[in-house]
Amino acid sequence: MVKGEQDYLKALKDAAEKHKKGFMALGILSLVLGIVGLFISVAVTIASTIIFGVFAVIAGILFFVEAFSQDGTGTKILMLLVGVLYIIGGTVMVVYPTMSAVSITLVMAIFLMAIGVVRIISGFMMRQESSAWIMVVINGVLGLILGALVYSDWPESGAWVIGMFVSIELIVQGITILAISSAAKKVTKSIKKSVEA
User: Fold this and answer.
1) What pTM was estimated for this model as a whole?
2) Low pLDDT (below 70) residues in the chain
3) For 34-84, how does the pLDDT look when each residue is reduced to its tens digit (9 = 90+)?
4) Residue 2: its pLDDT value, please?
């Protein structure tokens, strides 16, 4: 192995080892937070709604600031209106998180059912073109069932659905990060052998 290639592999190995622990810690933290979140989904729902509301207010302020830098009157008015809507919507979410979560959950339930129906129809339409049509149909059926379950328990489901979805996302993210860390560990070992060769 030439010296330049050996130096490159050594630098790559050092970088992988340096960030490996932090990456694994992030994956474990995400996984633990997701599991804990499933048991306190109501609190996670309220916290998520408030955080989303804060981001909406910030986005509204940014739209306001950006509007005054626009030349056209129509564009300026449109951006100001969007800014106002974001600020009002965000403020409502922060002040009334439970009510907002219930409303968002209803929209989510309707959206899941609508997407489910579209996927089922699309799946059957692509029967002749692809063997994957059955997976599209199954995906659609699952979305439809999930949406129907959320809707059937609404408005009570508004208290926990968002928190449950956020927690599941954290668990999936944690597992993904840990899987990537594990793969990186194997790559590091392979590089180490190449460096030592």
Assistant:
1) 0.65
2) 1-19, 72, 180-181, 183-197
3) 899 888 888 888 888 899 899 999 998 988 888 787 776 777 788 888 888
4) 46
b/e map 95-115, b = 16+ CB within 10 Å: eebeebbbbbbbebbeebbee
The string of DSSP letters for the chain reads --HHHHHHHHHHHHHHHHHHHHHHHHHHHHHHHHHHHHHTHHHHHHHHHHHHHHHHHHHHHHHHHHHTT-SSHHHHHHHHHHHHHHHHHHHHHHHSHHHHHHHHHHHHHHHHHHHHHHHHHHHHHTTTT-TTHHHHHHHHHHHHHHHHHHHHTTTGGGGTHHHHHHHHHHHHHHHHHHHHHHHHHHHHHHHHHHHH-
The structural domains of the chain, with segments of one domain joined by +, span: 32-187
